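G., before I forget:
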Amino acid sequence: MRNLKKYWSVAFLCLTLGLVLAACGSSTGSDSSGDKLVVATDATYAPMEYMDDNGNIVGIDIDIVDAIAEAAGFEVEYKNYGWEPLFAAVENGEVDFAVSSITITDDRKESFDFTDPYFVANQVILVPADSDVESFEDLKDKRVSVQINTTGHEVVKGLLGNTSSDIVATETMPLAITEMLNGNADASVGDNSVVLEYVKNNPDVELKTIEDDSFEKEFYGLMVQKGNSEILDLLNEGIQKIKEDGTLKELTGIDIE
Amino acid sequence: MIDFLDAIRFDMIWNYKELFIRGLWITLSLTAVGYVGGIILGLFLGIGKLSKIKWIYYPAKYYVDFFRGTPLLVQILLIHLAVIPSIFGHSLGYFVSGATALMLNCAAYNAEIIRAGIQSIEKGQMEAARSLGMPQGEAMRFIILPQAFRRMIPPLGNELIALLKDSSLVTVIAANDLLYAGKVVAGAYARFWEPYITVAILYLLLTWVFTKVIAYVERRYSNSYIPSQRRRIFSFGRASAGG
């Protein structure tokens, strides 16, 4: 009887292990077969990419990638990874590329390849309507909320210091703005598209936005695994096509060279 | 893996060392406040759950059910973004929200540990104390709790280590804890091995220290503890009689 029990547990172990391995096998199999490209995104960044009422991933970025896919003749499947995991997913080839309002920076270029830019953004400062902040310099002795590890976070680190405790870095931009409204920060710094969308959607909240010339213009690109020129060329071809036929300008309202 | 071994860049940790030092400090403070508050609150809740009076028993029971039955992450977000701003009109900062959430959560688990510890003491102990003329409260304080405490040490130690690790969840409300430092470095360099392995090692270091402390406390309060001269590191120059 005891022996039988032992065998059962071994059999169960084998079964579990088998199932786990089978699951792994099938998932990697579907990634490589077919010409459907898997796209990672962080769908918490309205209006660029977010979940609609039905749980579909939508937004300006998504419209652009759809247009690129149509122009270059491939199909795409979006997967919501979250901001930090999507970098790892692109790096280890789990997905084919990522679209998530990713600014092309020299630091990121060290680890990834980027397509030609498809969107221009700049940072804006959001403060309560009665705030005395007028420029970026005025934030020097203030607490500033940002979305963690975004370009907004980078510029604020530049002003307040890399390890400053006056930086309130939250998981999402709406949370960063909420921290400011709740009094944990005096100002928020974020991408123009997101901040302006928030102001548009919340007309009752008394806020003002400040543009500052010291912010560099940023170019968003699609992010590809380092050295994967096959997909990079395909995407660049699509971007070129939608630039030429005016689709890109129609979607973003911005002319881009 | 091989890529990682080729080029470990620990200079990126060094550049952000202040963030890690502050992270250690914040993590330890949150854990300490949460744990001490959790034990005090848990003691009342645990005794409350043993009460025969309905309006004491049911609130304690529902409190434990709620805080043990919902994820700590949800509690943290709820307290930081909804409860505190609604009560005070503005946020009180991440430390107050984080410590409160950890304390309330820890109290629910401690309540069960303390209740079970008290129940594990034989009925005869209470009966003997009462028959000697001790009131119920006094008997609980001087007879039951000291004995029960000894049995609670291992699970309470467990809870301390669990709480230390769970405190990493407060990073979602932008608390500058240890994990937050790792996340910032990971984002700044888009490299993940160095920051997260550093964070893991630092957490391991903290839990290792806590394990030693718990082991000492357990030994100190065990039945077989024999006070010896050499071991008395906490006697602070008190002259030892006899020996």
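Confidence is low (pLDDT under 50) at residues 25-33 of chain A. The first helix of chain A runs from residue 2 to 32.

More on Monday.
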